[in-house]
Amino acid sequence: MDDHEFLADRFEEHRHHLRAVAYQLLGSPSEADDAVQEAWLRLSRSNTSEVENLRGWLTTVVARVSLNMLRSRSTLREDPLEVVAPASAGDGGSDPEQAALLSDSVGLAMLVVLDMLAPAERLALVLHDVFAVPFEEIAPIVDRSPAAARKLASRARRRVQGADPPSGADLLRQREIVSAFLAASRGGDFGALLALLDPDVVLHADRAAVLTGASGRLRGATAVAETFRGRAHGARLALIDGAAGAVWSAGGQPRMAFDFTIAAGRITEINLIADRDHLRELHLEVIEN
Fold first, then answer.
1. Cα–Cα distance measured from residue 120 to residue 176, given in angstroms and rounded to the nearest whole number
2. What is the pTM of this model?
3. Would you say residue 213 has pLDDT above 60?
4. I need a surface site. Which of 83, 154, 182, 234 has the fewest CB within 10 A?
5. Which residue from 60, 19, 67 is spatially nearest to 43, judged by alpha carbons?
6. Sheet containing strand 253-263, strands side by side
7. How far apart are CA 20 and CA 33, in angstroms?
């Protein structure tokens, strides 16, 4: 057996799992096949001699490919969800993920619900809740920190389950921190901004936000504080899917959402969301005029 045949055999060992992941993320058997095929092409072109966990490596590849497909679908406003029973997603093997595809929790109705989620939210929820992928491994796929990836999954889970958003003292503390951040930003108080930011804070902006002049990605309290110093005059304290955040509006329409991740009393991540389709998917409630 040559190296190519050996690699192909190893890939086949994980095909059911990879197709289950792709199907859950995409909701389309044909697109799932495309994602799995792309994973094989990337594997065949890569040096994986030092890869200890091939299943995990392939899962990451399929997830990245699927995420790109979901984002392209959103951009093109397509809806390729195929009305095909989940049983068609494989060949009826005994693989645990294949069995999962036949369960109610991942049936067609669930796929319809998942289609309401933003691509990154859908990926975080499916990989973690269905396939038990740790947030530390999900984070680089969605270009977030582990804490922010966890928040994506939590937000998606609330939408899917129709659960109430966080409330009480925790939400009140979030609002206080975000409000203080906005005030420090407007007032140009660099010291106050630093005090509110985690030393390793990350600022991430989506493509639409970058087109407005935002930095695509910054890391570190100094860089982020400098970016916000003397700004955010138009941003208003708001609830984003029930969590404390901020919204900048123009002409009565939200143009950018500031999604904060807060841990141990400090801001660890700020995500700027300006994509119109994504904004429409968020439940935004301005609580400061």
1. 27
2. 0.64
3. yes
4. 83
5. 60
6. 217-219, 197-205, 266-273, 253-263, 243-250, 235-240, 284-286
7. 10
